[in-house]
Design brief:
Layout lengths: L8 H12 L7 H10 L6 H14 L8 H21 L10 H10 L5 H6 L2 H10 L10 H10 L13 H12 L5 H16 L3 E3 L1 H6 L10 E5 L4 H16 L3 E5 L21 H13 L9 E7 L5 H5 L16 E6 L1 H8 L3 E4 L2 H8 L15 H11 L6 E4 H15 L3 E4 H6 L26 E8 L3 E7 L4 E9 H4 L5 H18 L5 H10 L2 E6 L1 H8 L6 H29 L9 H4 L1 H6 L4 H13 L13 H7 L12 E6 L2 E6 L8 H5 L7 H13 L9 E4 L4 H13 L4 E2 L2 E4 L12
Parallel strand pairs: 2-3, 3-4, 4-5, 5-8, 11-12, 15-17
Antiparallel strand pairs: 1-11, 2-11, 6-7, 8-16, 9-10, 13-14
Helix pairs in contact: 1-2, 1-4, 2-3, 3-4, 4-8, 8-28, 9-10, 10-21, 12-13, 15-18, 21-24, 24-27, 24-30
């Protein structure tokens, strides 16, 4: 164990040499600077800060290993503080796991069920499995992030839990209700997967597993009905979810437009914008456990009469009373709209309330079953032809221009290709998908919760009855491709990962009942990935190449196969999700539509039809920016921003290099986010999307000087190639070198 002694020059050098062991760094200059900076009266904590700061200053493209030296010095400080708070000798690094659980349970930090469901002997066994050497896998950004945001502390923010204990607590918590005969082995496997950084769990699970507060799910989607009751009930539900750390998508396409009638009085409705502004206030005022303001994305159909004012919500100019700067926007696009954009045709806007009243149906409840043909466009054309409906005609390209203008200014709206999403819905027998979530990777059946009645029970008890709708919930975890694929452990990893995700559904405590009911009905999980650019660099595959596209195709087919197989095997053990019968899993249509063939796929197809599926929705690729930082890899399926850059948040600025940066990987990383041809990114994502039953958080990276025609072509390409959603249009005002593609 290293301890800093500010009076001893040799000790300072020893600390630096220990931190540098096995790393490709020269320590002499750091030692000289440290000896000058650390005075005899300098405290231990301040001495460590000085050493870390000097180490970080040495990080650049030629010296990436300094980040690990800084991480080790920081880690030693965590060991010292935890040992002081928990009364064990710091040379041991880690103390008693049982005593940690006992102390933090008594302090009200840990949930009591860890102590009640595991014996002292079991915890002593798990303590022996904890491997402090795996702390050396963290770079500085990773260890700093996990230590300052996720480790369990006491109420005074004192360090108690250490990184390997966080992994073990998550493993124990997620496996608490497994059969006792195999539970120990399952905890061991979950700890192996997490502690080796082969996978990460989503932020709410990482933060809250094992603790008394908060829930474990990442994503929720609400569908708001066209009534005052539904609008205000929805706002309350969203506030509850936001308070507990969820990101929320909200579909508002059913709400009547500005100027619509109320109780037969024409021109009375103020449209969707005032209700969106209310949600904007909720996002700001109900923050997520004090860590960040609420995060809400609101989706509207491109045929809604209020679409123009909706697209202006995030702009920095115009009437601020018609703006909502703290929410995110998404637009729901049918194939027909994109066709009209492409051929420069007209587009018609309608009031959904009037359509229901006059036509007897809701446009949003239909989709085109085939590309270029289907029920939705038939209903839309009937609305266009109706003389009884009020409508507004506008060139489709003009709406698209407004979309792109907003995207270049604010990054939004997100794009949701509703026909493709619903065509690919594995549970289309049971509902409709109207929109996606905050990060555009979740696509599941939705329906509004409906108020039934209110009555008095006894003298002073008021009871409200509701018919529950499908309130989407998704639980996420992600494979670290940069580590898991080279180590050839996907089969072992996905087996434990699917079980961990499935267990979240039963352990979770959700703050609203309809979300709980939907969670149990579909048992939806979202197994995803990060580290794609990292993996390409390790494998020496150029981003802008057919080789990368083909690699994405084969890799994600393998991930899909293993995920489906393990959900099927869990179903055999624990039973299918309740809505399985009639789904594309039960009929085999899922495999048929994907075109899966070959002996292993045919066998799996038969096994699924025979044994069922534990989970109705399986895969989704989330943004994974924070968890990728912890794991020392690249975010999601995105290219890196730069080979060397500073990661900046509210409370820090930390230099970062691309993972495993060396003379061999540099050439792959050099073509970074704002340089790579985005058309290749779309091609990769199109083949990836084929294998993912939900969707993908997929960003466009463009200069803000991009020609409108080029950005339009990207959107058209994404739609034509079968993408379900696109996330941010991330534009930069910096000069972009080598951006030949964005001029073409």
């Amino acid at each position: 164990m290293i301890t800093v002694n500010g009076t001893n020059e040799d000790m300072i050098k020893q600390i630096i040499n220990e931190a540098a062991k096995g790393l490709s760094i020269e320590t002499e200059q750091l030692s000289e600077k440290a000896v000058k900076a650390i005075k005899p009266e300098t405290t231990l904590e301040k001495s460590a800060d000085i050493l870390i700061k000097i180490a970080l200053e040495n990080i650049d493209e030629g010296n990436p290993d300094w980040t690990f030296a800084a991480a080790r010095i920081y880690m030693q400080e965590l060991y010292r503080k935890a040992a002081a708070n928990r009364n064990y000798h710091p040379d041991n690094k880690y103390g008693s796991l049982y005593e940690l659980v006992e102390v933090l349970t008594n302090k009200g930090i840990y949930a009591s069920n860890i102590l009640s469901k595991y014996t002292k002997q079991e915890m002593e066994h798990f303590e022996k499995l904890i491997d402090p050497d795996r702390d050396y896998l963290f770079n500085y950004l990773g260890i700093y992030t996990i230590a300052t945001r996720y480790l369990a502390t006491d109420h005074n923010k004192g360090i108690y839990e250490l990184p390997q204990e966080r992994w073990m607590i998550i493993a124990m918590y997620l496996m608490q209700d497994e059969d006792r005969s195999k539970r120990t082995k399952l905890v061991e496997e979950a700890y192996w997967a997490l502690s080796n950084l082969y996978m990460t769990v989503a932020t709410p699970t990482l933060t809250n597993a094992g603790k008394t507060h908060g829930q474990l799910s990442s994503c929720f989607i609400d569908t708001v009905d066209d009534s005052l009751q539904s609008i205000y009930d929805s706002n309350t539900d969203i506030a509850k979810l936001s308070k507990n750390g969820g990101g929320i998508g909200v579909y508002m396409g059913k709400i009547r437009a500005r100027g619509s009638s109320i109780k037969g009085f024409k021109g009375m409705s103020s449209g969707v914008v005032p209700w969106i502004k209310q949600l904007n206030n909720t996002a700001v005022s109900v923050d997520q456990l004090g860590t960040r303001k609420g995060a809400i994305a609101i989706y509207l159909d491109v045929w809604h009469m209020d679409i123009e004012s909706f697209l202006d919500l995030k702009l920095n100019n115009g009437d601020d009373r018609m703006r909502a700067h703290d929410i995110f926007t998404g637009v729901c696009l049918p194939d027909y709209f994109m066709e009209q954009v492409d051929k420069r045709g007209d587009w018609y806007l309608f009031d959904p309330h009037e359509v229901r009243q006059v036509m007897g149906f809701s446009l949003e409840d239909f989709y085109d079953e085939e590309k270029g043909n289907g029920e939705w466009r038939e209903k839309y054309e009937a609305c266009v032809q109706s003389d009884s409906l009020s409508k507004k005609t506008i060139p489709a390209i003009d709406i698209m221009k407004r979309i792109m203008k907003s995207q270049l200014e604010s990054g939004t709206p997100f794009m949701f290709y509703r026909d493709e999403v619903n065509r690919q819905n594995s549970n289309s027998h049971n509902g409709m998908i109207y929109c996606s979530n905050l990060c555009t990777e979740i696509t599941q059946n939705q329906s509004p919760t409906q108020f039934v009645e209110e009555f008095l029970e006894n003298e002073n008890t008021i009871v409200k009855k509701y018919k529950s709708g499908d309130y989407v919930v998704c639980n996420l975890s992600s494979i670290n491709l940069g580590k898991a694929v080279p180590d050839n452990i996907l089969e072992r990893l996905i087996k434990i990962q699917v079980r961990m995700l499935d267990n979240v559904i039963d352990i979770n405590t959700l703050p609203i009942k309809q979300a709980e009911l939907t969670n149990k009905k579909y048992r939806a999980i979202g197994l995803g990935t990060f580290g794609w650019h990292h993996l390409l660099a390790v494998e020496n595959i150029k981003w802008e190449s057919q080789e990368a596209v083909d690699y994405a195709d084969s890799l994600y087919e393998k991930i899909a196969y293993l995920t489906i197989k393990n959900s099927m095997e869990l179903s055999r053990e624990k039973g299918s999700y309740p809505a399985f019968e009639g789904s594309k899993w039960s009929t085999g249509a899922y495999f048929e539509e994907k075109g899966y063939s070959g002996e292993s796929w045919v066998e799996l197809w038969a096994d699924v039809v025979r044994n069922g599926m534990r989970n109705g929705y399986l895969m989704a690729v989330a943004p994974n920016s924070t968890t990728a930082m912890i794991a020392g890899s690249t975010a999601s399926i995105d290219p890196i921003f730069n080979v060397f850059y500073n990661e900046e948040k509210k409370d820090f600025k930390i230099p970062v290099t691309a993972p495993e940066l060396n003379h061999r990987t540099y050439d792959i990383y050099r073509r970074s986010a704002y340089i790579v041809d985005q058309r290749w990114s779309v091609k990769q994502n199109a083949v990836r999307q084929k294998h993912i039953d939900q969707s993908i958080s997929f960003n466009f990276y463009v200069p803000n000087t991009i020609r409108a025609s080029v950005l339009l072509d990207l959107h058209l390409q994404a739609w034509r190639e079968g993408l379900k959603t696109t996330y941010y249009v991330r534009s930069t005002s910096n000069d972009v070198e080598e951006c030949e593609w964005c001029q073409s």
